[in-house]
Design brief:
Blueprint (H helix, E strand, L loop, with lengths): L28 H23 L10 H12 L14 E2 L5 E2 L5 H15 L6 H18 L6 H15 L13 H11 L7 H13 L9
Antiparallel strand pairs: 1-2
Helix pairs in contact: 1-2, 1-5, 2-5, 3-4, 4-5, 4-6, 4-7
């Protein structure tokens, strides 16, 4: 595929299913389910490793995000373990152009969050900070697929360093999150502010359901 063109790549048209890995499967659904279970297992193992502190000494940079992506993909989808170099069409018709030097772009985005993470005071500034961190990563869409779980793992590491491990990152199948995610890819990171408010509320109160709107 020539640079600047939208192409199919190895994972079909670039259309992502709600379980992103299924977009990489053109065979029978049973095969796709097996692949998704394998990726989900890798994700669970990585979460446990993060919670044990195995990543505490790693630099918060593009190399860390790439390692997380490669670990997710290593068993079943190794061809998705590198930076995105092709264009994609997302659900809803949004087109993502190829982005050169993805590692450098990710490093540039993460750098200020590394420098200032200890200066954040209070809940509201933290919510905006985290929304910008996540939204910028989704706007770049650094991998051809499985961006969401790899970014979520990176956020888990960041939250641990802020003293808020986990913060209910697994409770994001709501329409609010999906709408915010699409906006985040358009650099409207403010859409992620209410999502992060819910995440931090869940983490602090240990509730098991969405809070009602007042």
């Amino acid at each position: 595929m020539q640079g600047g063109q939208l192409g199919e790549g190895k994972f079909g048209s670039g259309q992502l299913a709600q379980k992103p890995v299924l977009a990489a499967v053109s065979a029978a659904p049973a095969s796709g389910d097996a692949i998704w279970r394998s990726v989900a297992l890798e994700q669970a193992l990585l979460q446990a490793s993060i919670d044990r502190g195995d990543f505490d000494d790693r630099a918060f940079d593009a190399a860390l995000l790439l390692d997380l992506q490669q670990a997710l993909c290593r068993r079943e989808l190794p061809h998705l373990g590198g930076w995105r170099v092709i264009g994609l069409q997302l659900p809803g018709g949004q087109l993502l152009p190829p982005l050169p030097a993805m590692a450098e772009r990710v490093d540039a985005h993460l750098r200020p969050f590394t420098r200032l993470q200890r200066l954040i005071k209070g809940t509201e500034p933290l919510i905006e900070w985290l929304a910008q961190l996540e939204g910028g990563l989704h706007a770049m869409y650094p991998f051809s697929n499985l961006c969401e779980p790899s970014i979520r793992l990176l956020l888990r590491i960041y939250l641990r360093r802020l003293g808020r491990p986990g913060a209910w990152l697994d409770r994001d199948t709501t329409p609010l999150y999906l709408q915010a995610l699409q906006a985040g890819r358009l650099r409207h990171w403010s859409w992620l502010v209410p999502v992060w408010r819910l995440r931090l509320d869940w983490h602090s109160t240990k509730v098991t359901a969405l809070p009602r709107r007042r």
